[in-house]
């Protein structure tokens, strides 16, 4: 039964052609400022200029179970690009998030090989999400484009999951000015490898500049009882709970989150009348990709 979630990981990055995702949560995300932080305080707002383009690299490592029962899967390395296509009156930005590369990399003691995972991953390359982003961090009008590709069943019909990839890069921002040490909370629906969750997240600002905020993040994860058929047979998931923690810096001028997120998820899985307890740890590391040096450029001494 443990194969269900890793196979669903591939589905979590998939989508169906030119379909609209479910509407995003309300712009405020139920955001509450617990502590405005130290003075001086400033207003945090996304401020992408038209035409700004940023390349990103994301690595993902997944382990299931614990101790001698731990199951390890190949690491994923994904390249993406975020572009601000336009800035509308009032400051709302039209953005595009595109998948440029997706590769599995072998790890010690893994259960399947990278060669087995790489072919379906290539179906993801070239896909993109377009949508709008308000300066306060509300995403809307998101549409997934497969680039005309016909996806295999394991990757089809997962529109909401891919749109959440963009959701994770966008943190809702406080409506009022905040300073170092500020603390705020919000709720946000997530899709963790095909599993529908609600994250109650607390953010603490540890550093601020005019175009960035460095944060410490903690989340409590919960999920309703649900069924998944991403791997084929239906599996019932229940008693879903977990945590997420991370640190990073949000570049408000480039829509980039760099840092690390670690999610621990626990649940019961029932299939064919048999119930097992399952756990999964997902580690995401995000960084801005290094732009290649122009031809003929020399390293500084």
Kindly estimate the percentage of residues that lie in beta strands according to DSSP: over 45%
- Which radius of gyration do the C-alpha atoms yield? 20 Å
Distance between the termini: 56 Å
Sequence stretches where pLDDT stays below 50 over 5 or more residues = 1-28, 156-161, 292-301
Looking at this protein, list some descriptive labels.
single chain, about 300 residues, mainly beta, Lipovitellin-phosvitin complex, beta-sheet shell regions, 15-stranded antiparallel sheet, 3 helices, globular, disordered N terminus, disordered C terminus
Characterization of this structure:
The structure is a single chain. The longest helix has 11 residues, at 159-169. The chain has helices at residues 4-12, 114-122, 159-169, and strands at 19-20, 32-35, 53-64, 71-72, 75-87, 93-105, 128-133, 139-145, 183-192, 195-209, 212-223, 226-228, 235-251, 256-271, 274-288. Residues 1-28, 156-161 and 292-301 have low confidence and may be disordered. The protein is globular, with a radius of gyration of 20 Å. It has a 15-stranded antiparallel β-sheet that branches. It has a single domain (4-288), classed as Roll (Lipovitellin-phosvitin complex, beta-sheet shell regions). It is built from three helices and 15 strands. By secondary structure, it is mainly beta.
What's a quick, concise take on this entry?
The protein is mainly β and 301 residues long.
SSE diagram, text form:
Blueprint: H1 4-12, E1 19-20, E2 32-35, E3 53-64, E4 71-72, E5 75-87, E6 93-105, H2 114-122, E7 128-133, E8 139-145, H3 159-169, E9 183-192, E10 195-209, E11 212-223, E12 226-228, E13 235-251, E14 256-271, E15 274-288
Antiparallel strand pairs: 1-8, 2-9, 3-4, 3-5, 3-15, 5-6, 6-7, 7-8, 9-10, 10-11, 11-13, 12-13, 13-14, 14-15
